[in-house]
Hints:
Distance between the termini: 16 Å
Number of helices: 3
Shape: extended
Low-confidence stretches: none
Amino acid sequence: MFHNALDIAEIVRQLLEEGWTVEPEDLARISPYLTEHIKRFGEYSTHELGIQPEAYGPKLDVDFTPLREQDPTAAGFGQAA
């Protein structure tokens, strides 16, 4: 799930660099927790366990203030998909 969150953040950064407007409401509806087309307990490679990952950069240039100012459940953001 964390890897999915990193992928989403990278895509948001690419969209911003290309000049797209990314609304916080759009990001609030994206879930990094996939429940389809995955192998939760399937076969995974272990040869990459010793590889040091790149540093995680949590900063996104998206203003989340509008989401903080409204009731998230009233806007539908607190509901499971």
